[in-house]
């Protein structure tokens, strides 16, 4: 790991996953296999690693579990395989956060990159008109917010140095895949060129839209600090990520949101 996550977690490679040391709790990983995500890939018949990414939802320090439940917050971690999916980089299939029963809304997610190189791709909708589309390039230690209701996918953009990230999520999360799958994926496909640089190819199932490629915003309105792990920031201020479980706390930020 080349970033201090604030959690005593060992990353494993074969199989990809996590070991939770002493003061931590965490689940068995849930694996997304290539066959699970083919429908959202540019070439559904491509070759790639059998397990594309491993997900551990609900990780943290044992002393915080009661507070996390009270706040309806959950910390998830995801580790990606090395390699590629045909000519696409290794990536998640893309989904929208379903309405959570606790707040009757789709909720945001706050990502923090731990290792590798990431692009958090997101678009306002998974309708024929995808709205604004963004590819946010980030390195270890950087934070990205995905707002409620947006369709998004996480891309491990360096085939040799796979991505690991942590994220604050609502506890009663749910994922919707149908609209993305009906469009054979998101509105832009990332493609690796001969030098392993990412180029973007429009998905013709959507109307035309421009792709804005950028680095992460500073998110001043969310009071998230730079260079301090987001788990540590929760530990110091238990209220900081309450907007994840109750998006109305930052309702003015979601209109015209720029990630
Ligand atoms: O789209 P999939 O395969 O369900 O990915 C699930 C993972 O995506 C994330 O929401 C990140 O986008 C993780 O928190 C979650 O575990």
Automatic annotation (TrEMBL):
Signal peptide range in chain numbering: none
Pfam families recorded: GPI
Record-annotated membrane-spanning stretches: none
EC number assigned by the record: 5.3.1.9
Gene Ontology biological-process entries: gluconeogenesis; glycolytic process
Any one GO cellular component localisation term in the record: cytoplasm
Catalytic reaction(s) noted: alpha-D-glucose 6-phosphate = beta-D-fructose 6-phosphate
The Glucose-6-phosphate isomerase prokaryote domain, residue ranges: 48-197
This protein's record includes keyword Isomerase: yes
Protein's UniProt keywords contain Cytoplasm: no
UniProt-recorded Gene Ontology molecular function terms: glucose-6-phosphate isomerase activity
Keywords, ordered alphabetically: Gluconeogenesis, Glycolysis, Isomerase
Enzyme class: isomerase
Pathway field: Carbohydrate degradation; glycolysis; D-glyceraldehyde 3-phosphate and glycerone phosphate from D-glucose: step 2/4
Family affiliation: Belongs to the archaeal-type GPI family.
Name of the protein this chain belongs to: glucose-6-phosphate isomerase
Organism the protein comes from: Halanaerobium salsuginis
Lineage, uppermost ranks: Bacteria, Bacillati, Bacillota, Clostridia, Halanaerobiales
């Amino acid at each position: 790991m080349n970033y201090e996550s604030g959690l005593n977690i060992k990353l494993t490679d074969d199989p990809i996953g996590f070991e939770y040391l002493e003061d931590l709790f965490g689940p068995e990983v849930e694996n997304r296999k290539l066959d699970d995500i083919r429908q959202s890939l540019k070439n559904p018949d491509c070759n790639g690693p059998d397990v594309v990414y491993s997900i551990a939802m609900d990780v943290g320090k044992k002393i915080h579990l009661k507070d996390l439940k009270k706040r309806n917050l959950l910390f998830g971690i995801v580790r990606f395989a090395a390699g590629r999916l045909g000519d696409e980089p290794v990536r998640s299939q893309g989904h929208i956060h379903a309405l959570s029963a606790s707040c009757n809304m789709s909720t945001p997610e706050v990502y923090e990159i731990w290792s590798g190189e990431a692009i958090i791709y997101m678009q306002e909708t998974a309708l024929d008109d995808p709205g604004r589309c963004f590819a946010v390039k980030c390195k270890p230690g950087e934070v990205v917010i995905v707002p409620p209701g947006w369709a998004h996918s996480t891309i491990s953009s360096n085939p040799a140095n796979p991505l690991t990230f942590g994220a604050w999520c609502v506890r009663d999360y749910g994922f919707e895949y149908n609209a993305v799958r009906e469009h054979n994926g998101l509105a832009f496909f990332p493609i690796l060129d001969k030098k392993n640089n990412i180029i973007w190819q429009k998905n013709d199932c959507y109307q035309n839209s421009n792709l804005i490629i950028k680095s992460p915003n500073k998110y001043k309105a969310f009071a998230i600090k730079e260079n301090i792990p987001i788990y540590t920031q929760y530990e110091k201020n238990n209220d900081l990520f309450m907007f994840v479980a109750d998006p109305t706390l930052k309702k003015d930020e979601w209109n015209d949101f720029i990630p």
